[in-house]
Design goal:
- By secondary structure, the chain is an all-beta fold.
- It has one domain.
- 0% of the residues lie in helices and 22% in strands.
- The chain has no helices and 3 strands.
Length: 55
C-alpha cells in the first residue's frame, strides 16, 4: 500500500507492518487536500475483497 499527494509525490508506503500481514500507514493528513491511496492484493492472481479503514 502506498499513499501519494495530489501531485503524485509518495508520502508513505508499507507492506505488512499492521496486524498479521496487513499493511498500515500512519501519516498526518491536511484538511481540504487530495490524496491517492494505491493498494495491491497480496496474491495478484486471485480476486478478493479489500477494505480501507481511516480514523
Amino acid at each position: 500500500m502506498a499513499s501519494f499527494s495530489a501531485n503524485s509525490t509518495k508520502i508513505a508506503a508499507d507492506d505488512d507492518s499492521g496486524v498479521g500481514t496487513n499493511a498500515m500507514i500512519k501519516v498526518p493528513l491536511e484538511a481540504n487536500t487530495d490524496y491517492l491511496l494505491r493498494i495491491r492484493l497480496y496474491y495478484a492472481r486471485s480476486a478478493g475483497e479489500s477494505a480501507v479503514m481511516l480514523w
